[in-house]
């Protein structure tokens, strides 16, 4: 497997690859999109906030990286038909897809189970589990046809260490592990296609600020600390490794 936590991607490691990044408007999604573009990928930015997507788009363009694409898209409010239409658009505009990085994160708030509502649970399950499943399925023909394709979901530590007040968020995030393992098993004969789950642990990110508002930001590893792992698992260095749950940093 190698030292994937400190992986140094070679120059041009993602040249000619097309990668879809969800949740690309901020946090890990934005940082990962910039890193993938830096190493040569044509990045499709997906997120619900058009202004935030535009900012990331402009940063990629200003740096002289391959021209990205931006698709304003709210996974919590979109159904199968909208996702299918997006898949058709990607096929028409790019003709290929070499990977999906699922960074979109559905989170409501921390509270006792007695105070949580069904609609909140449904929204979190939709963004964290159902939407990645439908995206993978809709884009499967393109991924299957790619010479080397990787799907990577970003997980959450509290899915594996459930605790009070994490409720629907923890339950929805643990579903990602089953999704990854089932897909990896079904795709076992496809050497060119893999799917894995990467659990960042506590790092500087917008989602961490929501769940730990009293925490000192500077006490955490920067968002960029996760990029070597993302580049490893999205690139050909991880070829042949599928169905794994990878813990980057333990909970603090």
TrEMBL record:
<keyword id="KW-0560">Oxidoreductase</keyword>
<dbReference type="Pfam" id="PF00106">
    <property type="entry name" value="adh_short"/>
</dbReference>
<dbReference type="GO" id="GO:0016020">
    <property type="term" value="C:membrane"/>
</dbReference>
<dbReference type="InterPro" id="IPR002347">
    <property type="entry name" value="SDR_fam"/>
</dbReference>
<dbReference type="GO" id="GO:0016491">
    <property type="term" value="F:oxidoreductase activity"/>
</dbReference>
<comment type="similarity">
    <text>Belongs to the short-chain dehydrogenases/reductases (SDR) family.</text>
</comment>
<protein>
    <submittedName>
        <fullName>NAD(P)-dependent oxidoreductase</fullName>
    </submittedName>
</protein>
<dbReference type="InterPro" id="IPR036291">
    <property type="entry name" value="NAD(P)-bd_dom_sf"/>
</dbReference>
